[in-house]
Amino acid sequence: MTPSRPPPLQSPNPQRLYRSEEHRVLAGVCGGLAEYWDLDVVVVRLAFIALLLFAFPIAFFGYLALAISIPRRPENLAESKPEERQFWREVSHKPGHTVGALRHRLRQIDRRIQRLEKHVTSRAFAVDRALRAAAAKTEPAPDEQENRPQGSNS
After folding, report:
1. According to the model, what pLDDT value does residue 35 have?
2. CA 15, 21, 26, 30 torsion: positive or negative?
3. How far apart are CA 103 and CA 38, in angstroms?
4. How many CB atoms lie within 10 A of CB 82?
5. pTM score > 0.70 for this model?
6. Residue 41 and residue 34 in contact, taking contact as beta carbons nearer than 8 Å
């Protein structure tokens, strides 16, 4: 069996605009927009109500158009961790920033690995290791310390 791949021209990015099933009142458009923009659903609904009051035809027909054009959220789309959601949101909205942030993080990891390699291959590391091994051999076992008479320093 081959691993499942997304259809051609479709990104594996789960950060897409879907109608919300969880925050649904009519068609789930306001809930979907709130999830996509990472806003509170109440804020989006209040903005939509204000738009209805001031520009009824635009708001009404706009809502209908969005309800028809935005697909429902697939049931097999797993909820991801907050860090993963933030990553995909940034990939969708600011791909250049995301690439720069990943490059910076990889450089930090590379520097840490270089410092670790430098320390492990240094002479001081070998000396510290030999001293720890010698100290471990000369220390009495924990059960010997308990059986030692009190007042004895040896």
Report:
1. 79
2. negative
3. 25
4. 8
5. no
6. yes
Nearest Cα to 68, choosing from 28, 25, 11, 36? 28
Tell me, what amino acid is at 124?
A
* pLDDT beneath 70, residues of the chain: 1-15, 23, 74-98, 139-154
Q: From residue 141, how far is each of 129, 130, 131, 133, 146 by CA, in Å?
A: 20, 19, 18, 14, 9
**Nearest-10 crossing angle of helices 41-54, 29-37:** 120
Confidence at residue 111, expressed as pLDDT on a 0 to 100 scale? 95
Helix (H, G, I), strand (E, B) or coil at 72: strand
> What burial class does residue 14 get, using C-beta atoms within 10 Å of its C-beta: 0-12 exposed, 13-18 middle, 19+ buried?
middle
Residues β-bridged to residue 19: 72
Ranges of each domain in the chain: 29-80, 94-138
DSSP 71: P
